[in-house]
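Support request from a user on the community tier.

User writes: "When I paste my structure tokens into the form, the page sometimes reloads and wipes my input. The last time it worked, I copied everything first. Here is what I submitted, just in case something in the input itself triggers the reload:"
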């Protein structure tokens, strides 16, 4: 698996709700998005929205390269996690990225 995503079309808005990519393949997100937009079901798309993190750095660069405009989350929601057995904060900051699909809101 080099890339995967979950999308939802609502009128002229395409919501990119979940994403999983191998960082060794920087073109994967662009190729996936192009394939999705080529589908007739998404022909009315005028706006694409997603939640994207700045970390890890490769993910932030990919999102920027796709032309997404960064804006604050409208409800000021943030990521919260509880480490039960060991402190994962350093590992998560270096490797984890999340999308709206990782919440209960998508």
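"...and here is what came back when it finally went through:"
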């Amino acid at each position: 698996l080099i890339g995967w995503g979950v999308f939802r079309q609502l009128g002229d808005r395409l919501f990119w709700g979940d994403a999983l990519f191998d960082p060794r393949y920087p073109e994967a997100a662009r190729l996936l998005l192009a394939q999705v937009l080529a589908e007739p079901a998404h022909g009315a798309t005028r706006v694409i929205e997603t939640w994207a993190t700045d970390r890890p750095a490769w993910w932030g660069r990919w999102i920027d390269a796709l032309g997404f405009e960064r804006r604050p989350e409208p409800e000021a929601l943030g990521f919260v996690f509880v480490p039960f057995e060991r402190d994962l904060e350093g590992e998560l900051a270096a490797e984890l990225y999340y999308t709206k699909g990782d919440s209960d809101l998508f």
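Agent notes: The reload is a front-end session timeout and is unrelated to the input. The chain has a mean pLDDT of 85. Residues 67 and 93 are 24 Å apart (CA to CA). Escalated to web team.
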